[in-house]
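Notes, Module 5: Reading structure tokens.

Key idea: the token line is not a picture. It is a compressed description, and you learn to read it the same way you learned to read a sequence, by spotting repeated patterns. We will look at two proteins. The first is printed below with its tokens.
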Amino acid sequence: MLEERDGELGAAQRALATALSGRGQLIVAEGGIGAGKSALLAAVAGVGAAAGMQVSRAQATRLERDFGGAVLRALLYPLVTAVPAANAAGWLAGAASAAAPLFGDDPSVLAAVSRLRYDPDVGYGLRLLVRRICAQRPLLLVVDDLQRADLLSLAFLADLVACREEMPVAVAVAVQYETSAVEAEPVDEIVQAADVVLRPAPLSERAVADILRAAGRDPAEAPGLHRASRGNPLVLRSLVGTGGHPSGCPSPLRERLVQAFDALADEVRAYARALVLLPSGAGPATVAAVAGLDEVQSRFARRRLDRLGLLRAGLRGYAQVVVEDAMSPAELDEFHRRAAEALDAAGHPIDEVADECMAVSGAPPACAARVLPAAGRAALRAHDPRRAVRYLRRALIDCTDDGAERARLLARLAEAELRTDPVAAIRHVGRAARLMPDVRSRAAILSRLTPIALTGADDLFGLIDAAARALPATRESLPVDRELALRLEARRRFRDLDDGDALRDTLGRWAGYGALPPLDTEAERELVAVLLYAATLTVRTSGAQVAGLACRLLEQLPYRPLLAHTPAPLAVACALAAGETTDVADWLSTALLPGGRRPPDDVLLALIGRATLHWLRGNLAECRRDLLRATRLARGAGATLDPTGAIGLVSTALKVGDRRILDRVAEVWPDPTTATRPHLRLLAQTLRAALALDRGPTSTEWDDWEQCLAELERLGWRNPALLPVGSWSARALVTAGRSRRARQLMEREYDRATWWGCPIPIGRSLRILGRLTEGPAGVELLAQSVDVLTDAGNDAELARTLVEYGVRLRAAGRPDAPERLVRGMRLARRAGADRVADRAAALLGEPGRAGSPLTAAELKVARLSAGGSSNRQIAELLGVTRRAVEKNLTNCYRKLGVPGRAMLAGKLAELFPAVEPADDEALG
């Protein structure tokens, strides 16, 4: 711990040389706690010993403060006893005999001497003794922690320092100002006479690196440890000894801090407590108010603490641990109560005041009832719901009112819990509503939970229905009553999506709105979003009408946190079902802007929406990437799926057909019996059937599937863009020998897709019907599918149809079959549909994977890289490390003889030649 102390050691060495010449010297090392004074003093002692001086060392302690002469005895007794008895007797002869009792072994004599005050005879005897010792050899006396020495020893040292120039003696002391003003006076008398003052500076980052290197640690840790210790040697030693991550305050730092705090005067200790326990931004006036000191006392205390180093960042945090441990629970309670009031009066940030209120375990401060709810609202605005929940729960504990005030707190708590514990939020909204004395207040609280958030909250709908009956939305209603009535209606209508009869009533309400429903207020937007979603599920309105209204809704629903509890997910789902991509892409790009804090549920919904958007645009690589991110988020970050998000996730994953993604979705949502809604059970059963295709579903699984289909028909949920049950199950049905059932479902799906009017569901239905239909009729259906999908903008779906069409044309001996296959293969490559592309390549007689110099993994990585995907995106898509991607790409470059990514696409096209189309238009 002597890094960067060369200057101090040089000054001490020069002082010792002066002492050796016969003119005594006083060397003082001063500084705060842990500044390295003791290590420096030990080094000075070593320099003196190397120069031939007699060295005697003493450590002053507060325990021996009442034992007069303890330090001087520790300094001189070893010297007296180290020489022959005759020599010692000569040293203590004559006038020096007055000091002889200090060096005897009789306890009674020592006790009597320790009670004597310092007198001239003793002082003269001690000076004479030191002269006689120095006559034999120059002397160096070293005293650590001089401020803790007893008064007799301090008087001896002061006397010795006063006449030091007459003898070859050096006195080296280390001092730390931790005592009261009265106790410090004799210490100051000595220090002020210093010939050399050593003030060790904080260590630099380079010194920290050298210390780490010497300890066998990585020097790269130096910046972090330097910031944590602020260059304080003692703190640094503690951090290095605990691996850089101490819990609490490690030894020996704790011991030094405890000793320092014990030695402080009462007013300085009170100021120190306030200083280290209050937030770092607390001003001197606030600290003084909490400590109960006036301005003069505060200035004195601050100077003392500054000299101790406790005002510096390196020690302050550790001092806080020591101070809290030393205070009783009652003292801590009283301190935090005073701190809350003082910080509140001084206008400190609301969260700092709230934290002090939270720290009080007994009766709350007077400001707590106002501060905690306000801090909860501020935490929500800062997107920190967990902190908001803490504040509001404590406010509820302290609340003595069992009426409207408790209800308002419960409602605010529910608002925060929507992001952390939706089940608790629903429970607290119900409790709050029941506490409210009037129907308008109950309706306002029930409206805090949006329609989506109320999924599964069946026990609240009795309250919602009663409030809705009491607040009809008539023309004569007050604006506030009408707004509340519309909000309640939106929640009831969303609940009724699972009730066939009630859903028909909802569709009648939708029909009464006309083409341009009002969207001026938030309540109107909520209700229209629910009605539009109901019309979308049941195909009661065409896709074109839904797309226009959904985009109007999104224009008035800018992204805000807690997306899952706004009407926006319903509008996004409707727009995507209608094939609208441009406006939805703009909206989702705002919801996923980098840099902002987004709740996990928001990111999850936005990722699912963007994955569906990529699928609509035929970009399967990006679609898979977002689906994988969504499943990881749902599994690892505590994000939860609402009904619209669940439909989007499972529907898009099944349309992509990637087994790995389906497995991930199944991990997120493994058990169909846990689903509370019919459509959720259907999705779970469909997912199970899709995953069972390789082994074939059991008869029980088919029975469950048919039951879900029947329930879905009973409800009227028929939109093939959201729930294309025929497309999902056709392959499994054919594999199970149920082709007639597959055709029946697909014909029904085609009719509904035609009514919906969006090209992708129509083209997909035509393709699957074409595969199920033999002969020229099937070929004609595939040709119609190509025509429909050509302008739909989905390369993946068009590629599938073109390859299927080419297969049928080839079987019929048609000469234009290769052209269709080539076009489908190229579109599939561009879309990331590798299996479709590989099938077409095999049919065209390309070498494919078997004839390629590349392995299957290398070929897949090469194609993704040539398509523009980055290494990170490829790694996420394939579920491997980035290093594995880089290794495969390096092998590709070597095997194909290309220098890098820029020439990879051309080399792959050269390796897999294809039949060129008749003209550029054929490429689509």
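Here is the second protein, with the sequence above and the tokens below, as before.
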Amino acid sequence: MKNENIKIIALGGVGEIGKNMYVTEVDGDIFVVDAGLMFPEDEMLGIDIVIPDFSYLTSNSERVKAILLTHGHEDHIGALTYVLRKINVPVYGTKLTIALAKEKMKEQEFSGAVDFHEINADTVLNFDSVSVSFFKTNHSIPDSVGISINTSEGAIVHTGDFKFDQAAGPLYKPEIGKMAAIGEKGVLCLLSDSTEAERPGYTPSESTVVAELSNVFYNAQGRIIAACFASDLNRIQHLFDSAAANGRKVAVAGKSLKRVFDIALQLGYIQVEEDMIISVNDLENYKDSQVVILTTGNQGEPIEALQKMAKQVHPQVNIHAGDTVLFAASPLKGSEVFIYKTMDMLYRAGANVVSSKKSVQVSSHGSQEELKFMINLMNPKFFIPVHGEYKMLKAHKKLAQSCGISEENIFIPDRGDVIDISGGKLKSTEKVQAGNTLIDGIGVGDVGNIVLRDRRLLSQDGVLIVVVTLNKADRKIAAGPEIISRGFVYVRESEKLMVDSTTLVKEIVEKNTIKESFDWNSLKQDIRDSLSQYLYEKTKRRPMIMPIIMEVK
């Protein structure tokens, strides 16, 4: 059967780090690759997580045939629950990926039935319009795969997250031969991981981390506290190996880490002697030189937990003099200031800090030479860089051009761009709705730009609440005005400002109530405008002003 109509849409994961969700549409059938979340940026005040706006999928739910997962990191599976609440669709992933997705659903209190299908690298799925095959990739979590959606025009290949580590162990070995075979057969379009597209050369091998960790463990006198991402199973394995080689026991702190660790241990993705693991509560029964504490934060984010330990407010473990703190996680892009601040706090608490200056962390994404290697293995006709900020996508485009792909066959997508592949050309003519859906508590998408703007205003100059009670019959002030300040000025030190503001409000109310056509809304707006102008003149601040007008008979 000849495929007539092929479209590709990125609903997330382009122009940003995280929130990966890519749609491949073949003759009307929709295949979704990954459904990830992103942790909020600094300006998203109070937001817990961010997921893609997938309204395009809900409005075309009868055409969605499958969700295909590349691996078990939260930026690839964290939004699955929210998608499955709206769309009933089969989900395909490897053993570990499915186990982690099920655990994530429990955590997010999803009660519905899900049609999960476990696949491996040799599985071939046959649908009406396409067949789907898989190949193993090398990443920081086992069971990572790339996905090949095979059409009559050639394969559409999603690499997922990958690097090429020549010293990778059996669980992490990539199937380079299979990738080359897919390339030989013919790749129509390659969508490739751009995270480290700006970094020249090769990403260092995990074997360099093993050597450096052994060195740190050997030289540490007191306790070792190692911070890592909950789902970075490769690094967790190295930490256990180094602990075993140096006669130390390991205590696992942090719910998300414990959960992921237990699943990986149960499924055989981590090899650890049982007597090596101790409870955090048993730490006092061992000498400091006999223990390693493995930690991560609530969302699998380790830096937050270290800050609590440094401030002596962590529920389980606090830093004391002589501890060695090991940053065994590659820092998230944009979190560098937060990390340096945390290091400073750890030093103040008496710890010795080992960080990225030593090679105890390497990226789990391929650098420029590895990205070129993937392009050459696949030899695609068209190329779409994904999974990265715009500057990374742009750098990846340059790499593809250096590998011989012509500029007109490369497209840097924006969220929602519909990329049409037809008549031997790649073009984008339309856009579908795409963007951020903000999750705050149990609210999904109920916090938008207006609420965020209000939160930002409150965080900048605070709020003034103006309360006035009016007598309805004679239109006179019955009580007030009373002005309450929160986050604007300290009232005791600004008495004159408050008295003058109260007088101003009183004058505005009296001026408005003598009018024939008395209007509540215009009174409130008048209070806001006049008080805002007066306060700005006096303080050069613009607090949010909330007038509350009450009536008594």
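Summary for the second protein:
- The radius of gyration is 28 Å.
- The CA atoms of residues 297 and 305 lie 5 Å apart.
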